[in-house]
Structures are given as C-alpha cells and as structure tokens.
Amino acid sequence: MNARRPHILLVDDTPENLDILGALLAGIGQLSVATDGEKALDLAGREPPPDLILLDVMMPGLDGYEVCRRLQANAATSRIPVVFVTTLGSANDEMRGFEVGAVDYIHKPFHPALVRRRVEAQLQLKAARDVLRDQNSVLEGLVSERTAKLREALATIRANSLETIVRLSRAAEFKDDDTGAHVLRMSRYSAVLGAELGLEGDEVDNLLHAAPMHDIGKIGIPDRILLKPGKLDADEWLIMRRHAEMGGEILAGSDSPVIRLGEQIARSHHEKWDGSGYPSGLRGEEIPLAGRIVAVADVFDALTSRRPYKEPFTVERSVSIMREGRGAHFDPRVLDALLDVLDRILEIKENHQEEGESWVRSVAGVDSPAEGS
Ligand SMILES: [Fe+2]
User: Fold this and answer.
1) Residue 161 belongs to a domain
2) Which domain holds residue 111?
3) Ligand 1 centre and the CA of 311: distance in Å?
4) What is the pLDDT of residue 228?
5) Residue 196 CA to ligand 1 centre (angstroms)
6) How much is the pLDDT for 359?
7) What is the pLDDT of residue 372?
8) Is the pTM of this model over 0.85?
9) How does strand 52-56 pair with strand 30-34?
10) Å from CA of 330 to ligand 1 middle
11) Rounded distance from Cα 341 to ligand 1 centre (Å)
12) How far is the CA of 148 from the centre of ligand 1 (A)?
C-alpha cells in the first residue's frame, strides 16, 4: 500500500454535491474541488497530478465529456482515471462516457457505501499501475545499463580476438618477415581497394582484419623449404603451394565472419584471373573478390618491399610488372582500382615501414586507421 494519501479531485457545478462527496470521501484521501471544467483542467494539470477525478457530466461551459476528452489528449493528464458522476441513466450516455475515456460511473443520488467502494477500487488500480510503471522504468534503466556493459564487453572481446588473429598470422609470417609490417601494409591496401571497389563499411572492416590471415598456412611448410635461400625445385614448389589449402583448413568451420573470410582469402589468394593459379585453378569471377583483392595487395607489397632474396623494386617497376599481369594474374578491375588509388597506397606504405611493437594494435584496429574506411 502506498504510504502517500491519494489525491482526489471532485468536479461539480452544484456545491451540495461537492459537500456530499467530500463528506463521503474525506476518510479515503486528500480532496480538492472544482466547480467548472476550466478549473478542473487547471487543477488536474498541476504537479503532482490527482490520482482520481470524479467528474460531473452536466455542467455549464465545458461539460464532463469535453473535460474528459481534453484530459485524455494531454500527456500530463491522460493517465489520471476519470469516474463520471451523473444522474443520466441511459446505457447510451454511459457508453459515450466510456468512449471519451472514463473508467467508471457513479450515479446520483449517491449510495455512500457504493461510492466509497468504487472510488477505493479505482485508487487501488491506479496505485498498482503506478507501481508497475515505476518498476518498468527501473527495469528499463537496468536493461539499458546492462546493454551498455554488454556492448562494451563485446567490443573488448572483438578487439582481443582480432589481436589473437593478427598475432597468429604474425607467427606464420615471422620466419621471413619478423616485423609483421608486410601483413600490416597488405591488409590496409586490401581495405582501401575493397572500399574503392564499392564494398560496404562492414565488409571493408572484415577484409582489413581477415587479410592478415592469407598466409597462415605457411606455418605448415617445413623451414628447409620456407627459408630456402635459392630457387625451389619442382617438388619443393608443390609443397610450398600447399600453404593456401593448409591455411583454409586451419581456418575452416568458424562461425566468425572475419575468420570465414580469412579462410576464403587463404584458399584463393594465389588463384589467377586467367585460371593458371593454385590450388584450384579458378578463373575470373569464380575467384572470390576478397581473394582477387588480396592477390593484388600482396604482390604489390612483395614487389615494393625488401625480401631476404631481393631488394625492393621501385614503385614504377612494380607497377609496370603488375600491369603486365592485368587480365592474366590479376582481375583487371582490381588492378585498375590499385592504379586509381596508388597515392593512398603509397601513403600507407610510407607510414607503415618497420612497425615494431605497435603493428599488432594497429591491425587489430585499436589505433584508429590513418585512411578512412
Ligand atoms: Fe601466399
């Protein structure tokens, strides 16, 4: 039971009726009175609003129906229950009252016990509704607080799992690229190319985080082949090529969209547009777009970087080598995109040379990327 005494507003143009009702209800709640519709609306609109309004139907000026309609139309008063007080007895009149929003009727002449019962019943309902509403708003507050915490936790989990991905990818790259800078650059090139080719924000983001996994299968290639200083013989080359499938197997069966994309990229980044690539000899658009994009990004970075077996080629020479592969090794559209955004690609290259410790944070998206998504 609410400790506060309920507040009842009595509205009637006949003072005797107000006196009778006042005497009947004084023990139930705190009373205020209005002798016309305008005054009733004014009192009902004040804070705190009444818990119940007993409203005469037949009044000069605004009648009870109009007052009730206006109470309903105002958000500040629409929740106050209204009980009509009337001598009218026809079912039609009562229906009209319910239609404008009344919750009950009290008839004149008053039957004291009945009036008190009905008023008490409406006050109890109102109190129960208020409790429910308070609980709901407390619950809503709790839910939104928990939701915010959950969102925060998910963001942390996402950042952590992305860091795990890039650290594992680094493990695969570690032997021939101990800074991880290649993975960092080629994944960013891939994201820029993806955006240039019309991928949506999420797809670009997934590509940025999946591209580092392209060579994760190298973890299964024996060092004598992976680190061999000279040219690979035919058998060694066959084994080396297996890194694409092994990467796919390592990443297979994940529920994570990023890892699924990583699997696709691992399997397809050595396919060639003309069908002469490996492991499946896919051609053209049979090769997933992400694989075609990573192929361009990966080769461009390999050409322009120092490797144990070669000095970096100039940008001009690298571009010219890649142009020769247009429509043979590379999807013409992806290669054209590279040439269109070459300035931004070179900016990334410039900003991401030997990265040292910060590269993992950077690939995991903990640092905000210099280039837009
Ligand atoms: Fe590869």
Assistant:
1) no
2) 7-136
3) 19
4) 83
5) 23
6) 44
7) 31
8) no
9) unpaired
10) 15
11) 23
12) 40
Within-domain flag for 113: yes
In the chain, count H helices and then E strands: 16, 5
- How high is the pLDDT of residue 178? 53
CATH of the domain at 179: 1.10.3210.10
Omega before residue 60 within 30° of 0, cis: no
Give the residue ranges of the chain where pLDDT is below 50. 1-2, 355-361, 363-373
> pLDDT value at position 306?
81
315 Cβ contact partners less than 8 Å away, ≥ 6 residues apart: 304, 342, 346
Look at residue 67 in the predicted model and tell me its pLDDT: 95
Sign of the alpha-carbon dihedral angle for 221, 224, 229, 235 = negative
Cα 339 to middle of ligand 1, angstroms: 22
Residues near ion ligand 1 (Cβ under 5 Å): 215
Distance 240 CA to ligand 1 centre (A): 9
Q: How far is the CA of 267 from the centre of ligand 1 (A)?
A: 9
| Residue 47 covered by a domain | yes
Instruction: Note whether 105 and 207 are same-domain residues.
Output: no
Nearest to 266 by CA among 275, 255, 258, 274: 258
- How far does residue 359's CA lie from ligand 1's centre (Å)? 20
Placement of tokens 């007052």 in the chain: 67
